[in-house]
Amino acid sequence: MRRPTTRVTAAAAAALIALGAALLAPAASAAPAAGSDTPVPLPIADYCGQQCADILPPGQSGNATLAQILAHKAFGTMPAHASDQLARYDSLVAGYPGLTDAKVNEFFNDASFGVPGNQVESTTSPRPDVTITRDKKTGVPHIKGTTRYGTSYGAGYAAGQDRLWQMDLFRHVGRGDLTPFAGGALANQGLEQQFWPQAPYTEADLQAQVDRIRTTEGERGRLAMEDAQAYIDGINAYRVQSKNGRYFPGEYVLTGHINSITNAGEIQPFKLTDLIALASVVGGLFGGGGGGEVQAALSLLSAQQKYGLEEGTRVWESFREREDPEAVLTVHDGSSFPYARKPANPQGAALPDAGSVTAEQLVYDRTGAATAAAAANPPKLMKPGMSNALLVSGSKTASGHPVAVFGPQTGYLAPQLLMLQELQGPGISARGASFAGVSMYVQLGRGQDYAWSATSAGQDITDTFAVELCEPGGGAPTKASTSYLYRGTCTPMEKLEHTNAWKSSVADSTPNGSYRMQVWRTHYGIVTHRATVEGKPVAYTALRSTYRHEADSIIGFQMLNDPSYVKDARTFQEAARHIGYAFNWFYADSREAAYYNSGLNPVRPSGVDAALPVHAQRQYEWQGFDPAANTASYTPPAEHPQSIGQDYYISWNNKQAKDYSAAGFGMGSVHRGDLIDQRVKTLVAAGGVTRAKLTQAMADAAVTDLRAENLLPELLAVLRSAPATDPAVSAAIDKLSAWQAAGAERKETAPGSKAYAHADAVRIMDAWWPLLVEAEFKPGLGAPLYDALRASLTVDEAPNAGHGPTGSHAGSAFQYGWWSYADKDLRTVLGRPVAGPLARAYCGGGSLAGCRDVMTATLKQAAAATPAAVYPADGTCAAGNQWCADAIVQRPVGGLAHPQVNWQNRPTYQQVVEFPAHR
Prior knowledge:
By secondary structure, this protein is α+β, with helices and mostly antiparallel strands.
């Protein structure tokens, strides 16, 4: 949501604050017992021995009343616990070199169960069977129920206390009607246009998913829906109390939903189907995988047009890197888990005719502000999530117990998508992070004697089908036809649509406007493109195995929270098997570290190539496919990458295991996973790994430039293959070399300096990388193929590479880029060994002298680029401000703003754990 744009003078703000003072007073039923000296009994079963820690910036509290928002705008004040974890999170950048186990909690929260009596800030009992205790340091809710209903009710009530406005926003995002609720700001248009086409549902569709879990998942499914209903009841109780007590989030006033003087208006009740809508957003961001086959087909066709069928396919496959032998792996002991590999004799591929592909239109009938030029391509502010994990088994640690440092990179919103909580009740015992609005269970965190986390896996669970178009009356079809052949019958597509209209408000001054979003749904998924294949009109559709199953994973999370179920690594893996989204799951207790890759991996016919579109014909469908509920046969658990007791595990969204085919481009010889793999491997070789040492490995990787650490040595070798004659080039080489030797960090000279050490070298690399990649590859590939490959894999993702409204200030960096291509090509030119090389040498036409000329010319150009040109101004930073261009910004989804902090390529929520004992 756009921040309120009205100017508030101090006098006006004071008057408004006085007018809204009642909004600060909580209802009697929620009154805190601040400063209570009565000890809150600690749970009996906590085996972590104060060696579990976590952090989640900016802070626990995500609700602010109107008075608090106005005070924040006028005076810079913050509600309690809205921003008190941000500085500690930021301070690790400077503090990690001196980290010891004793200092871990200077940078993280103590994640022990319970709250010591002298640390109790407030106690609330929204029902007699549940107590919510919040600690003084962070305000995290510790929810303790004597009944299961009360525990889940308390979780919902606490979620309302901490994230009511945000939950309301994101249920509207999931339903595709955000702009009527929050306003027509470009960011709001982008959010609903980003998510609704991925998971468009009718209300009946949402209810069917609730009913399916309740009726087909046995006792656990019934229990899950009871827990979910209790959770909804808790949210609604807080919703009503805060509205009546006038301490609801002030954004409801600023967006025109409630009158600040009369209190007229309503916060709409939450219902079970909201959980499905919210789950579709979370799953779409973090748990998807595959897709993109239409663009892959276009780049394949471009390669074949340039080089011919056979050689073009060979060139394309070398860039596709499905099973690169040099790729960093999570399971690195040689175990093989074949999935989605290229078939020996591909069948059913549906490649489009040249020039025939058009993307399906989403938005129609624009009026008012929706007709503005900028609205044609609104920013997509939420990127698919990434995460990392570092685990070392006990045989390599100082204590003999496994150590883990892990967490998800969920971006930086204010408040966060995730929220911290502790849940203790019948069948539930956990502390950790949960996505607001679906936090009836802890989704990433710790149990009594174990901890778990996840990274986005991205394996191929989404396929593209080419449905042949037809006309019901038997006429000649065109690309615009809205019926298709389904198993021989001409079948009408289903049109799903939303008409969204918005009005200007105090919170969002975007002028009034409206538009209609429309998608076509088939038995094979949602239409994304139209084309012709061998002259016949087709629609390309995207079919995701988790579509219509957005919340089925609730069963797995229920198990992870159940201490009677998860008792060791094996039972953890069994719980993770019940999660349908594509995630890499990691586990540590006092005895074992373990890993499991979850996801509904569809079983394809043996000849189908999952990397390309396939004809929508029965022989090429997923095995056992039933479109009514979107079910199919899935690969059995034993075929998913998994491991127990490997010496160490790392994951940074890299390739999982040998023969587990990469779902997209970019899983090659250089990957950001190498940044942590290299560091952890060194620690393991030395032995004696501690929590502090593993945290240091993560933190060091988090401030390191992947290009400088892994590619600059090769670039310098090419440049130094003959003496540099140009003084400007020689000076640039010296600066880059010094930076690389010093660790290739993007880090302040001193805390608070907001200036990088080796600033010139950083600037040169940022300017040079896109120039050198284009000069290295475009002449040999030709512009059409180069551009087609860039559409599948962006060239660069430096911290500021997405500078502007869509990708800057997001923390996560170096996931996507041409790192591996450049690495393999440069080693080829240098005459060094390469496993799985590119099909051809490109730099300088394969000549070292020619490559050196290319590198020299582009380096000179980069060295001359001014800071203002490399780091243009945006809404946050002045032109040329290098530190600011990288800096992380907590993007407001409400009325509070937070200071910029140092760039770190690091999980948003993170745990540091080492269990010394077990049940």
